[in-house]
Amino acid sequence: MNDYAIDTDKLCLYYKRKLALDHLTLKLPRGGIHAFVGANGAGKSSLFRVLLGFEAASSGQARVLGHDSAQLTPALRGRIGFVNEEHTMPTWMRVRDLTRMQQHQYAAQWNQGRYDEVLRHFNVLPEQQVGQLSRGERAGLNLALALAQSPELLILDEPTLGLDVVAKRAFLEALLLTNAADDSTIVYCSHQMDEIERVADNLVILERGALRYMNGPADFCERVQLWVAEFPFKAPDVWQLPGVLQVQPIEGLTHIVVFDQDDTFGARVKLLGARTVHCMPLGLDRAVNAFLAHGHAGARRAA
Ligand SMILES: Nc1ncnc2c1ncn2[C@@H]1O[C@H](COP(=O)(O)OP(=O)(O)OP(=O)(O)O)[C@@H](O)[C@H]1O
């Protein structure tokens, strides 16, 4: 058995002339919650479409649970759960009937305890019609159905998009309370860093269809630092220094976000004429945003 839940090798996907996945090589180990992050258009949904067999790769390899994603059998598909922001379900059905249908379809693997546990969290009643549920309740029902299937791989593609703060929290709590990540691999795609910070064991950053980073979120925060410098006169061009991701003038000070620099960076800033310079840690939100903004600016410069 392959040790990876997702294993791609130089995977490319073109939509006509548009390159969505650019020689993506990604080895995602089994188990845990993996947060996928990337700017709009980074290729996250395209990757999931290839993995689920909805799109054929233009070149390269994509394997999911050890199998070629272009040749997934219905049995293999049944081992993969997918939830996206649309929470598409038959609106005319009652929750009770939809539940029965899914219990029947996934009889061998159905986990009733987990289903009830998640659904309880959202106060959804069996006699309610799916179309009458609020957006948050529909997201909860969708999560309950997906988790009850006991998928080996569960892909959650921006599942909380459009939900209010309370519903978002309920969704995350439900995901965590089931401990589903103990025996499944969960891919959680979101633009919300507070969500990522709460749930992720592993952070995967995609940029323009390629892998830019994969490791723990805490490790990422350690590698991104904020240096705050005070220049007595006009600030020099600090972009000439190594590893600079972002430069912002804030209240007379120059905020410099850098990647993979050690304490000698402060000495370099001083050499440029700074009167004072301090290093400060950064939260995941700002660290990831600076990283992505730099990549975006780089792409614009290259174009
Ligand atoms: N059906 C399509 N036809 C043509 N181009 C497409 C199609 N779907 C996606 N693309 C392009 O492929 C690239 C990757 O898009 P994709 O939707 O995978 O990104 P994403 O990371 O999921 O973005 P977002 O965070 O906005 O959902 C984008 O440049 C997009 O314009």
Automatic annotation (TrEMBL):
Keyword Membrane listed: yes
PROSITE patterns: ABC_TRANSPORTER_2
CDD domains reported for this sequence: ABC_DR_subfamily_A (cd03230)
Keywords in alphabetical order: ATP-binding, Cell membrane, Membrane, Nucleotide-binding
SMART domains tied to this protein: AAA
Molecular functions (GO terms): ATP binding; ATP hydrolysis activity
ABC transporter domain ranges (all copies): 6-233
Domain of life: Bacteria
Protein name listed in UniProt: ABC transporter ATP-binding protein
Source lineage: Bacteria, Pseudomonadati, Pseudomonadota, Betaproteobacteria, Burkholderiales
